[in-house]
């Protein structure tokens, strides 16, 4: 057994290694107080369930990230909220629209074995029974050399190493929630027949990389930018604002269903929303991302991913503030500790 194989992954390991399988589970929480308390117990003790299933094969690197939607956050922890948290906005361009769909909780479950992912989801939903309704459930798989079903390598430009934490984890700009992240998910269906009618060169111009060997291409002159350019956000100082994507293909060929589950983690929610505006409305407006001509977004939901200490601190309804009622209870550690803990979990080089 290699050294890394003996280390179980904590809940909220946003930077968990790219896995061979994943389930993207979005649920809504029923309105009752009892449903809320049941959910509170399950999410704050999610580490126990990760150990229960993940310990059976540590080399399969089971992980689970819990995201909490805006409305549920206010129910769980009404005293303080992450500064940018709000529901996914509908983004309507002239031709294509990104819909906003319901979701109180996201469970991003990853492992290198489909059976571990399945078992974790089964036990998780058992523990949530009666309190939640499944809004969206997608089983994703890694496709050849990390390609999407359009045939292109997907994930190349992700931040790595020392850049990762800076791109993905909240810092001093929102100290109570340092070490957390925002995550946006969208389930896309592709029209592969229409895509196949384009030549390889036309497809490469849409994406902005060569198909076979994944080399980045310059945009053609003119107002129509490639996907990789429309999804690049300038930091105003000559740099780029990155997000961490762990998209996965899914599909049922027997039903003509071929898709990409988009998932993007970011320190700043506005960065992902700006990418979506550039894709759906266009930059300049009217010149939308042509990936959308063969890709229909069925869902769109935003969540906050608390750091593990803040997640555990939700057990008593604590949001990190001082309150005598919290005395004796395991309070959330200070923000700096949350960030340290998150930094510690960053398996640099794990991507
Ligand atoms: C780049 C596919 C949706 C953000 C790419 C690349 C591919 C791809 C093949 C080039 C390789 C790479 O760097 O990963 C897809 C597919 C999508 C999708 C199939 C769903 C239909 C999105 C969405 C966003 C996004 C919704 C953001 C809201 C990005 C970013 C890059 C990228 C930031 C890297 C750009 C760069 O710096 O080079 N995508 N993408 N993608 N995509 Fe997407």
TrEMBL record:
Entry keyword set: Iron, Metal-binding, Oxidoreductase, Peroxidase
InterPro entries, per the entry: Dimeric_a/b-barrel, Dyp_perox_C, Dyp_perox_N, Dyp_peroxidase
GO molecular function, one term: metal ion binding
Dyp-type peroxidase C-terminal domain sequence ranges: 145-307
Domain of life according to the entry: Bacteria
Low complexity biased stretches: 328-347
Cofactor: heme b
Pfam hit, one: Dyp_perox_N
Ranges of biased composition (kind: Acidic residues): 316-327
GO annotation, cellular component aspect: cytosol
PROSITE patterns listed in its UniProt record: DYP_PEROXIDASE (PS51404)
SUPFAM superfamilies, alphabetized: Dimeric alpha+beta barrel (SSF54909)
Domain called Dyp-type peroxidase N-terminal: residue spans: 14-142
Region described as Disordered: spans on this chain: 314-351
Family of this protein: Belongs to the DyP-type peroxidase family.
PANTHER family: DEFERROCHELATASE/PEROXIDASE, DYP-TYPE PEROXIDASE FAMILY PROTEIN
NCBIfam families named in the record: Dyp_perox_fam (TIGR01413)
Name the record gives this protein: Dyp-type peroxidase
Phylogenetic placement of the source organism: Bacteria, Bacillati, Actinomycetota, Actinomycetes, Micrococcales
């Amino acid at each position: 057994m290699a050294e890394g194989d003996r280390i179980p992954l904590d809940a909220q390991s946003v930077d968990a290694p790219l896995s061979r399988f994943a389930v993207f589970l979005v649920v809504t929480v029923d309105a009752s107080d009892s449903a809320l308390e049941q959910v509170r117990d399950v999410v704050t003790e999610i580490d126990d369930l990760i150990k229960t299933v993940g310990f059976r094969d540590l080399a399969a690197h089971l992980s689970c990230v819990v995201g909490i939607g805006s409305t549920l956050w206010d129910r769980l922890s009404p005293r303080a909220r992450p500064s940018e948290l709000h529901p996914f906005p509908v983004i309507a361009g002239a031709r294509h629209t990104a819909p906003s769909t319901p979701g109180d909780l996201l469970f991003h479950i990853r492992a290198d074995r489909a059976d571990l992912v399945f078992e974790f989801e089964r036990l998780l939903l058992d523990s949530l029974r009666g309190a939640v309704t499944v809004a969206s459930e997608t089983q994703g798989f890694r496709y050849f050399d990390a390609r999407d079903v359009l045939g292109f390598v997907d994930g190349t430009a992700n931040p790595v190493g020392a850049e990762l934490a800076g791109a993905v984890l909240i810092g001093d700009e929102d100290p109570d929630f340092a070490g957390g992240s925002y995550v946006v998910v969208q389930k896309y269906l592709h029209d592969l027949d229409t895509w196949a009618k384009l030549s390889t060169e036309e497809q490469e111009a849409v994406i902005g990389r060569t198909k076979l060997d994944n080399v980045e291409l310059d945009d053609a002159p003119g107002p129509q930018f490639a996907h990789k350019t429309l999804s690049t956000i300038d930091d105003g100082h000559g740099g780029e604002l990155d997000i961490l994507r762990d998209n996965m293909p899914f599909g049922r060929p027997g039903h003509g269903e071929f898709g990409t589950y988009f998932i993007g983690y970011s320190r700043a929610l506005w960065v992902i929303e700006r990418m979506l505006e550039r894709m759906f409305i266009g930059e300049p407006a009217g010149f939308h991302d042509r990936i959308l001509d063969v890709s229909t977004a069925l869902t769109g939901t935003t969540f906050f991913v608390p750091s593990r200490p803040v997640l555990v601190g939700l057990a008593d309804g604590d949001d990190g503030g001082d309150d005598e009622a919290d005395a004796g209870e395991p309070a959330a550690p200070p923000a700096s500790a949350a960030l340290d803990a998150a930094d510690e979990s960053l398996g640099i080089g794990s991507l």
